[in-house]
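Board notes (copied after class):
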Amino acid sequence: MVYLTRKAEFSASHYYHNPEFTPEENSRVFGKCNNPNGHGHNYTLEVTVKGDVDARSGFVVDLKQLKEIMNREVLDAMDHRFLNKEVPEFFTHIPTTENLSIAIWQRLATKLEKAHLHRVRVYETPDLFVDFYGEQ
């Protein structure tokens, strides 16, 4: 079994708000991240796939194909977007880094042909990241 990781970067804005909370509760729980005008991040995304090396190609996955899938499913949909207002998953979910990693997993998991998605890692800042290993 070989693990291969491809990295990409994107920028997006968002805000944290739970409509079930009172305004005071939203402010207390989310602080300045509750600003309805949003704030932005430069995210780093790492997608790790696993699989056996194909004897004919020598690949676990065609890197060009993986890049195209990541671009289509994640970067084209999320880069320079206001997540709460432009990405369907966040019309009803708070776009935390945790939920972002889950949404990316769900967008990618069924798109791979031979390799299997192993991990989605999303960095919000250089010292904060979330790993998601799929539905357990």
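Comment from the instructor: The first strand starts at residue 2 and ends at 14. The chain has a mean pLDDT of 95.
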